[in-house]
Amino acid sequence: FPVTIDATIESIDSSRNGEPLVGKILPENDYGISFNEENPFRIDIWEDFQCPYCKFFETEMNEYLETSVRDNQAKVVYHMASFLGQESVRAANAVNCAAEEGRFLEYHRSLYEVQASENSGIFSNKNLIEIGNRLGITSPEFESCVNDLKFKDTVSNVGASMKKNGVEGTPTVFLNGKVWNRTSAEFNLDEFKAAVEAARS
């Protein structure tokens, strides 16, 4: 393992943890992890933890989206896809394990912070467990959930539902059921916020 990878994991800590929030995994949301299920305004986010464009998207939008979840400004459904290989499957499984512990948001953010090149070993089970530990997820249940790929079926259900939803790549975002098409080359928070407000009205 290159030292830089270990260093990125070492920089993760629990000081930015918010209140624990348990998301729901429901068939009617295509097995994505949803928050604020009763909110009438809906944001669906399709990502793969190994996708570099998803990291660009998350770096720009993450704080805004986390606030939307925590302040119940929207029903937010995270669909973690896994088409970039086995490490995507492992990472998507692990974030479901973290969700059971009420730490989806923190774990999701951390996986993007440590993202390396595809299938480079960063998302090994050992590292995924270590990332959880650094966020304060230390239960034996979490460790076995990661090692046993407890949510393997959920992960493959999310993958299978991409086609049905017309998702051809990641990141793909739907605002109240309509796909968001960015107009700038980069992911721009102001543009995204404006699109959310327009979809709300």
Q: Report the helical percentage.
A: 40-55%
N-to-C CA distance: 49 Å
> Counting H and I runs of at least 4 residues, what is the number of helices?
8
Approximately how much beta-strand content do the residues carry? 5-15%
**Rg, nearest Å:** 16 Å
Characterize the largest beta sheet: strand count, sense, and whether it forms a barrel. 6 strands, mixed
> Element order, helices and strands?
HEEEHEHHHHHEEH
Structural class based on helices, strands and sheet pairing: alpha+beta
Describe the structure.
The protein has helices at 3-10, 52-70, 86-100, 104-114, 125-134, 140-147, 152-164, 189-200, and strands at 24-25, 33-35, 42-48, 75-81, 172-175, 178-179. The chain has 201 residues and is of the alpha+beta class. A 6-stranded mixed β-sheet has the order 1-2-4-3-5-6. Strand 5 and strand 6 (178-179) form a beta hairpin. The protein is globular.
Key attributes of the depicted protein:
single chain, 201 residues, alpha+beta, 6-stranded mixed sheet, 8 helices, 6 strands
Short description:
Helices cover 48% and strands 12% of the residues.
Layout: helices, strands, pairs:
Blueprint: H1 3-10, E1 24-25, E2 33-35, E3 42-48, H2 52-70, E4 75-81, H3 86-100, H4 104-114, H5 125-134, H6 140-147, H7 152-164, E5 172-175, E6 178-179, H8 189-200
